[in-house]
Amino acid sequence: MRGEPMPDDAFIHIVRVDIDPEHEAAFNAWYEQKHFPDLLACPGWLSAKRFVTVGDGPKYAAMYEVAGRWAFETPEFLKVKGFGPFESLVKNFMRIQLRPMSGSA
Fold it and tell me: What domain of life does the UniProt record list for this protein's source (predicted)?
């Protein structure tokens, strides 16, 4: 389990994806108006913010602060995880989970 957060440690969860241009407007509206509120209503999902890349890799990124690994196992999260109506349209999915190094401010 080297490098992974301990079960009760908070960490940052980042998801990066691409979507075809013809679906971007609907995807972005769904993400902001439906997906973020649904996730933030789940226990352990503390904050959420979206980004657009200025470099290489998938165009869109979402960064979440999660209270612990347990937040991925709640019934509430299991109902809203994934990309909903865009599941089959999302490409180049990437995920990274980061925890603070000791001593970081």
Answer: Bacteria
CATH of region 11-98, choose from 2.40.10.120, 3.30.70.100, 3.40.50.2000, 3.90.1310.10: 3.30.70.100
Amino acid at 61: A
* Mean pLDDT of the 54-79 span: 96
Contacting residues for 70 by C-beta, under 8 A, at least 6 apart: 7, 8, 44
Residue 40, C-beta contacts closer than 8 angstroms, at least 6 positions apart: 47, 48
By the 8 A CB rule, do 13 and 95 touch?
A: yes
Strand pairing class (60-66; 45-52): antiparallel
pTM of the model: 0.86
Closest CA to 45 of 62, 33, 29: 62
Q: Where are the domains of the chain?
A: 11-98
Q: How far apart are CA 50 and CA 1, in angstroms?
A: 28
